[in-house]
Amino acid sequence: MSESTFPEGFLWGGALAANQSEGGYLEGGKGLTTVDMIPHGSNRMKVKLGLEKRFTLHQDEFYPSHEAIDFYHRYHDDIALMAEMGFTVFRTSIAWSRIYPNGDEPTPNPQGIAFYRDLFETCRQYGIEPLVTLCHFDVPMHLVTEYGSWRNRKMIDFFARYARTCFEAFDGLVKYWLTFNEINILLHSPFSGAGLVFEEGENPEQVKYQAAHHELVASAQVTRIAHEINPENQVGCMLAGGNFYPWSSKPEDVWAALEKDRENLFFIDVQARGAYPSYSARVFREKDVKIVMADEDAEILKNTVDFVSFSYYASRCASADMNENNSSAANVVKSLTNPHLKRSDWGWGIDPLGLRITMNMMYDRYQKPLFLVENGLGARDEFNADGEIVDDYRISYLREHIRAMADAIADGIPVMGYTTWGCIDLVAASTGEMSKRYGFVHVDRDDHGNGTLLRTRKKSFWWYKKVIASNGKDLD
After folding, report:
1. Quick check: is 182 catalytic?
2. pLDDT > 90 fraction of the chain, expressed in percent and rounded
3. Domains in the chain, please, with CATH?
4. Which residues 6+ apart lie within 8 Å of 334 measured at CB?
5. Distance CA 417, CA 406 (A)
6. Which of 233, 239, 195 minimizes the C-alpha distance to 214?
7. pLDDT in tens, 185-195
8. Distance between CA 475 and CA 44 in Å, rounded?
9. Active-site residue, selected from the candidate residues 22, 129, 182, 215
10. Which of 22, 129, 215, 374 does the annotation list as catalytic?
11. Other CB atoms within 10 A of residue 316 CB
12. pTM
């Protein structure tokens, strides 16, 4: 492969999410969110999937989001660490319930605005561009209990009010925005993805796709509002990315993979193209889904995003014979285990070429700039005898994926930037664990909430600093 070449001004950095890093879950006037209700342990998946109504906290369970890594109190020091690595972009999210604790108030919480204003000003002082997600898997619980969350059309106006507040309060500090994080996860993890809980006897597909419609209209509406408030604002959508490969060359397997790709890309097809894709009519018919749309929705949906952002951890595999018993439980997006790939400690296939394949597919499909906003290796990190974490496995993973991204750029794809996931160790969204670590900075905290929260630079910290300083040329 030729030397990796990244464009001048390419944005290098890392990503966190409010609900996985901030903690301070009731401080500063913040209200409870969906993620605050998801425990660590055996009940976690039932709650995440919306199969168990969890509207009150249980005293005998541990909730990782409540303190997380205490970014709420430590963000000045943490952003200084990012600056030390040379970050030019930091992706984070705003906790909706810090701005509107219940979600339906007429006026915002000034303490929440002051917190994020200082956070973004701190980034700017270091020359770091904030990339801000408006809704990263956290819906105010009041909107769930009072309105049924995104199954209710009223959510569109609540979200638009919240977004407008953010665009106005942080105008001049933030110009890169994402509406919904990994919007397609709504189909796979309905409560954590969109605050959905199912009632007995109802069609879950109807609930999920109606909620999806409301989110898609809300996303388009706030994209329009962002451009009205400041034409410099750039708004992106966000996909949990990774193509499905056919298990074999059997035509039925190829078709199964195509259908699984469409299932995930459906949301981005709407957000990037401005209308429902042609295949959706058949999908809805077969799932007995009847989307209720308002007369103005088709027009609103034409407000398409400026760029397409996505996460990429692994590719996926599908066959016509795929079922609950033979697909991997390693991720909420079910996949067959690809025998041609090495796997992470948590069973995710490691596939750098899959990143290049995914990026080419997405650019061919949307013809919009791409932004890789999550990529990384969840692994168990151990201190050696010298008190250091020598995470060569993480460096190797990131190196090969950066090379694949460079190949995609050489293929002619415009790529805005790259933010590794969990640049400082955080609570894993999938499992609620701290032991599934992604960061360049170790946080002293275990899966049960014990530890000093002390930050320690890993070997990968110094490696990534060198990568950024060379604009991706020095990957050794």
Report:
1. yes
2. 93
3. 11-469 (3.20.20.80)
4. 188, 322, 324, 327, 328
5. 11
6. 195
7. 999 999 999 99
8. 38
9. 182
10. 374
11. 25
12. 0.96
